[in-house]
Amino acid sequence: MNPKQEKVVIVGSGLMGTGIAHAFSSSGYRTVLVDSNVEALARAEQAISKIFSDGIKLGKIDPAAAAAAAARLTTSSDLLSAASGAALLVETVTEKLEIKKAVIAMALPALAADAIIATNTSALSVTEIAASVPGPERVIGMHFFNPVHKMKLVELVRGIATSDETVARTRAFCDAINKSSIIVNESPGLTTSRMSALLGNEAMYMLQEGTASAEDIDTALRMGFNHPMGPLELGDLTGWDTRLNVLRYLHQTLGEKFRPCPLIIKMVAAGRFGRKTGHGVYRYVDGQCVPNSGLKASAL
């Protein structure tokens, strides 16, 4: 069988799931994006349509190819039906171990017998997720980066049972969707999440202490280190609720240097998660950052 005739199922239609679904469908795979929230699925379809239309305007994809890619993508709120015969499952649900295990357990009976089971977790244990799966050797971490259609890296995370065959097959999927992959032996926070969490946490401590404004902290990283966005901008994009979950896990497993900044805890308690709620470190209107809206130390 032509590998691109295989079906890929993505579970979770948030930012990451949306981007991953676009990556596979635009690379020739039959792709099903699954979410129990039909409104979230509708938003995901709109977001993917915009990526295609923007690509056409920029000359990165021709209209016929975009239409063919869109036709390869379907959505569903029925995980068992969507997973039927799939060769690859990528779950991108919330960073809670019990939820990830439940999603995989629900999909397992419908997947192809040798299907790869991938988790997009940025910090949780692939080994622990795999321990609940018959055939744990086919479970692997497949950590994409946001926005998926622009970011080239995928961290492939080996759990204690992950087989060489699973690594090779998953790497082939990455190659087929034009992503560069690195192999990471399971460790809390992997490589990038561990560094990013530490950087974002320190930036929030600096903001809390009044070292500099939010805008200037972000400018320092963009202009001084050529980062595409500052750590506070990135936290707003990722979601401070997600960042807090990751930091708490890293604090528990790796120690005191990952203790979450109190300002993050305060923001999450106030529902200021970032772009998705319209307010994080910055304010957003219609998805666009309001100039000079960053939190000031005097307001904390």
TrEMBL record:
* Keywords carried by this UniProt record: NAD, Oxidoreductase
Q: 3-hydroxyacyl-CoA dehydrogenase NAD binding domain location, by residue?
A: 7-186
Q: What InterPro entries has UniProt attached to this entry?
A: 3-OHacyl-CoA_DH, 3-OHacyl-CoA_DH_NAD-bd, 3HC_DH_C, 6-PGluconate_DH-like_C_sf, 6PGD_dom2, NAD(P)-bd_dom_sf
EC class, as a word, reads: oxidoreductase
Q: Site described as Important for catalytic activity, positions?
A: H143
A biological process (GO) of this protein is:
fatty acid beta-oxidation
- Under Enzyme Commission nomenclature, its number is 1.1.1.157
Keyword NAD present in the record's keywords: the answer is yes
**Residue span(s) of domain 3-hydroxyacyl-CoA dehydrogenase C-terminal:** 191-284
One matching Pfam family: 3HCDH
Gene Ontology molecular-function annotations: 3-hydroxybutyryl-CoA dehydrogenase activity; NAD+ binding
Question: Which residues bind NAD(+) per the record?
Answer: G12, S13, G14, L15, M16, G17, D35, E95, K100, S122, N146, K276
Q: Which NCBIfam families match?
A: PRK09260.1
This protein's name: 3-hydroxybutyryl-CoA dehydrogenase
Q: What is the lineage of its organism?
A: Bacteria, Pseudomonadati, Pseudomonadota, Betaproteobacteria, Burkholderiales
